[in-house]
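Justification of resources, computational component.

The compute hours requested in this renewal are based largely on the per-chain cost of generating structure records like the one below. Each record pairs the submitted sequence with a full structure-token output. That output is archived, and it is also reused by downstream analysis tasks.
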Amino acid sequence: MSSYASSAPAPANWLDKPTLHGEAVVLRPVTEDDVPDLLPIFSDAEGARLTGSHADVDEPGVRAWYRGRQEQDGRLDLAVVDRATGRVVGEAVLNEWDPDNESCSFRIVLVPGTYGRGLGTEATRLIVGHGFEALGLHRISLEVYAFNPRARRAYEKVGFREEGVLRDALLWEGERVDATLMSILAPDWRVHRGRPTA
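The structure output for this chain reads:
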């Protein structure tokens, strides 16, 4: 009888919710107290379009959502804090953890008016690095809609690469929109550390 040695890493500790420090942002566990700063995300029509969110949410619903985030295993919800102002300007999330394949999904959303300053790119770099270096992930993936080229460029700056197109993945106000599936792998991360063109 053959025996196989397991090469799988130790189980990731998703219940450890870290604080990650960058030059322009700090990522820390998101809490219900952050809701006033995050509410503009949920009421912004353009943000809803760019993320494909059809949900109507109100403040009590948002509070309920964030109330239990830190006790959730298999996901990491971090507030994006602008170091220049000390304000919460968004959230970065690793979720949909697949322990058998050492992979998860990623999403990020910023408060309107904070785009174009590199905050999202740095936040992406920080949480993706944590996923590979602390959580032992091999693959992190995301979907970005065709009408959000700014987000796609930010993901590419960190090293995400296109894997394919999900045709007509979203129906938005009567228009069908493609989504691009992108991913970054741990071996790529080890080479460029989130700066593939540097």
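Residues 1-10 have pLDDT under 50 and may be disordered. Residues 119-133 form the longest helix (15 residues).
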